[in-house]
């Protein structure tokens, strides 16, 4: 397998997993979010990734999420299932369950927490690749996983039979671009932090973008890809600036990305649901700042600010 074995492309949001007040997966809200994004231009989704709080879910919950995703997408887009785990055994079990559910591919990050050598990371992927049939998208997010996939290592991993793509989410433009140069002829390359430099990535050949921001910013977070791909550069520039400002808003003044994403969805009336521990909802000060920031960017009506402050 290689990049030509799949047709994955375009803006594929990394979707949230909505939880209800009791901490259970809100299946209706999950499906609703995917339907909204499909109508606004998403070409597919990553379910059960970092944005989807996979690390706070049991293996059985993750398997069920793949089924929910396949049912909601119903063949209208690409479904990539986050199946990364620390052990080969769990990664294979989840990847095979994703295939049975109807997923098109498995997003697999390297084993996390313990620091590994490149040889240890390669051995993990090699073992997984030999035991699954689903195409694999490598996932480089060292800020979360501890272990990073350097351009050299991604190039080495591209030799594995099931590896067809990479989601480069390091947030480091130099690492992203060096990876693209190294493997674009062999693997499909997706830009993770498209809110930061997605336009540049698409203009230089990225196959698509995978980001959390379309959950709260659609169609803008999707149009960022289309504007760049179609050469509408002024529009692309404006969308990239808005994405950069959103990114800064979500991770400033005591806020972090995933709680901000769900809080923003709630403010905008979107089906984001609740967080699952250990994450906690934003405090009132952080929430007020988020609301004011969304309003300043033209994404939240002033009337909602006034109701929030009342």
Topology of this protein?
Elements: E1 10-11, H1 27-39, E2 44-47, H2 59-73, E3 78-82, H3 88-101, E4 105-108, H4 118-129, E5 136-140, H5 142-145, H6 151-157, E6 163-168, H7 173-183, E7 188-191, H8 194-203, E8 208-209, H9 220-229, H10 233-250, H11 257-267, H12 284-296, H13 302-309
Parallel strand pairs: 1-8, 2-3, 3-4, 4-5, 5-6, 6-7, 7-8
Short description:
The chain is an alpha/beta fold and 310 residues long. It has one domain (3-233): TIM Barrel (Alpha-Beta Barrel), CATH 3.20.20.
Rg: 18 Å
The overall pLDDT, averaged over residues, is 97
Largest sheet: 8 strands, parallel
Weakly predicted, low-confidence segments = none
SSE string: EHEHEHEHEHHEHEHEHHHHH
Estimated helix fraction: 40-55%
- What is the CATH class? Alpha Beta
Number of DSSP E strands: 8
For the biggest β-sheet, the strand order reads 1-8-7-6-5-4-3-2
What's the CATH architecture name?
Alpha-Beta Barrel
Q: Please work out how many helical segments DSSP would assign.
A: 13
CATH topology value: TIM Barrel
The rough form would be described as: globular
The proportion of residues in beta strands is: 5-15%
- Specify the structural class: alpha/beta
What is the count of distinct domains?
A: 1
By CATH, the superfamily comes out as Aldolase class I
Q: Separation of termini?
A: 58 Å
């Amino acid at each position: 397998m290689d990049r030509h074995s799949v047709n994955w492309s375009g803006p594929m949001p990394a979707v949230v997993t909505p939880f209800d007040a009791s901490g259970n997966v809100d299946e209706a809200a999950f499906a609703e979010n995917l339907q909204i994004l499909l109508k606004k231009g998403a070409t597919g989704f990553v379910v059960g990734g970092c944005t989807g709080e996979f690390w706070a879910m049991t293996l059985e919950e993750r398997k069920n999420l793949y089924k929910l995703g396949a049912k909601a997408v119903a063949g209208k887009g690409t479904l990539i299932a986050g199946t990364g785990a620390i052990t080969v055994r769990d990664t294979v079990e989840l990847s095979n369950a994703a295939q049975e559910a109807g997923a098109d591919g498995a997003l697999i990050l390297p084993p996390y927490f313990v620091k590994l050598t490149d040889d240890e990371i390669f051995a993990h992927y090699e073992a997984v690749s030999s035991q699954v049939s689903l195409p694999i998208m490598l996932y480089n997010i060292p800020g979360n996983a501890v272990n990073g996939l350097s351009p050299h290592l991604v190039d080495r991993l591209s030799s594995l039979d099931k590896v067809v793509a990479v989601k480069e989410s390091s947030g480091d433009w130099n690492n992203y671009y060096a990876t693209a140069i190294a493997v674009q002829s062999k693997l499909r390359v997706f830009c993770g932090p498209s809110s930061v430099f997605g336009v540049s990535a698409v203009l230089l050949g990225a196959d698509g973008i995978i980001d959390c921001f379309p959950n709260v910013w659609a169609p803008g977070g999707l149009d960022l890809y289309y504007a760049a791909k179609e050469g509408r550069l002024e529009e692309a520039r404006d969308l990239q600036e808005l994405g950069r400002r959103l990114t800064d808003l979500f991770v400033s003044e005591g806020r972090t990305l995933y709680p901000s994403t769900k809080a923003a969805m709630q403010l905008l009336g979107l089906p984001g649901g609740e967080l699952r521990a250990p994450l906690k909802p934003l405090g009132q000060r952080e929430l007020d700042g988020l609301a004011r920031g969304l309003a300043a960017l033209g994404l939240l009506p002033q009337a909602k600010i006034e109701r929030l402050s009342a």
